[in-house]
Amino acid sequence: MEKINAIGRRKAAVARVYLSDGKGRITVNGRDYKEYFGAETLQYVVTQPLLVLNAGDKYDITANLEGGGPKGQAEALRHGISRALIMVDEENKKTLKANGFTTRDPREVERKKPGRPKARKRFQFSKR
Length: 128
What we know:
Layout: E1 4-10, E2 13-21, E3 26-28, E4 31-32, H1 33-36, H2 40-53, E5 59-66, H3 70-88, H4 92-98
Parallel strand pairs: 3-5
Antiparallel strand pairs: 1-2, 2-5, 3-4
């Protein structure tokens, strides 16, 4: 099998994922994913598509992550891995879609408005 590449996105994070046959190693920006994502919840998020398909030890995954924070990066990586697994076998799409891994989460941070401290928050109103 040749290397398959896919892109996953979430918030401001972009994950370029390269999937190839292997023993289940996941490398993120040159480091092991358990070292890169310290929190166990984020490590779980990254491996969710592989756990659902029972393909944890079939593929080696290399990913380049840019932008965003740890949670956004983890979910972008999950999205990219899901897309790559669909390219490997079209049968995987039904299972991954049912678990919600193929949909790109469209929620973004709302911009700050002028004359306000945040996007929607207002300064305290003073009648007098």
